[in-house]
């Protein structure tokens, strides 16, 4: 499968779509205030699963991390997915996140 990556706003939002398919595209990168936000699927390259998704969402809430949602449609799932700052996911999956981590600490990175 060949994909086209497009950005109508100089990289703040990047869309991915299948080659020659102009009807379906999905956001793969969304930057707000210079903070890239991505889904767990985009970060991991695979489905995260309900347990891991809940764990990440809980950690983000405890850390005061602002999340967003994006609607996606795949063969097996239709619905909203959470988007997290990439810096937060880096910390979470590298074990650098603890109960006292705040969004201000994440931004200092």
Question: What would your notes on this structure say?
Answer:
It is built from four helices and six strands. The chain has helices at 40-44, 50-63, 86-93, 103-108, and strands at residues 3-6, 13-18, 26-32, 35-38, 68-73, 78-85. Strands 1-2-3-4-6-5 form a six-stranded antiparallel sheet. A hairpin with a 4-residue loop joins strand 5 and strand 6. The protein is globular, with a radius of gyration of 15 Å. The N and C termini lie far apart (36 Å). The model is unreliable at 98-109 (pLDDT under 50).
Give a quick summary of the entry.
The protein is of the alpha+beta class and 109 residues long. It contains four helices and six strands; from the N terminus they run ββββααββαα.
Label this structure with key terms.
109 residues, alpha+beta, six-stranded antiparallel sheet, 4 helices, 6 strands, disordered C terminus
Summarize the topology:
Layout: E1 3-6, E2 13-18, E3 26-32, E4 35-38, H1 40-44, H2 50-63, E5 68-73, E6 78-85, H3 86-93, H4 103-108
Antiparallel strand pairs: 1-2, 2-3, 3-4, 4-6, 5-6
